[in-house]
Amino acid sequence: MTFHNIIHDRQSVRKYQAKPVEKEKIRTLIEAVHISPSACNSQPWKLIVVDDEKLKNEVAKATFSKTVTFNKFALEAPVIAVLVIEKPKLIARIGGSVKNQEFPQYDIGIAAAYFCLQATELGLGTCMIGWFNQKKIQKLLHIPKKRKIGLVITLGYAPEGYKQRKKIRKPFDEIYGFNSY
Question: One Pfam match, by short name (predicted)?
């Protein structure tokens, strides 16, 4: 599979088979996060892989409510990964303060992209979830209160024949410029 195929095949999967994800594939995903770049090589994240079914279901339930139900599919995923934002190196904090940038936010976005693209190559589906009950997940996973959860990612095998949706994007000519805005 070429990189071109991977980026075109990757999609947000919202339906999963009841099939466990092999530990060696999970390790490969952890390695992908491990090598992802970050500002000043701070690596300001901790990846928590939740594969215990009961705990995973409790984490999944923290991504939806009675009124906000669009993440209910998370219950089907056999694995949920939680990316926790850690304190970056001092030089990255200083640089971020001077430039008014939140480098750890970018860094976990890159780490999540590496995770999801690697999953695609391994034949797995993912969906990044930004809507969740942080306090509940912190309590379930014993995450210190001073830490912030950046993203929750569902992981598993999409059902056979899961339909690849057409990617809807802005017109190509609207997303770039050469030498000027």
Answer: Nitroreductase
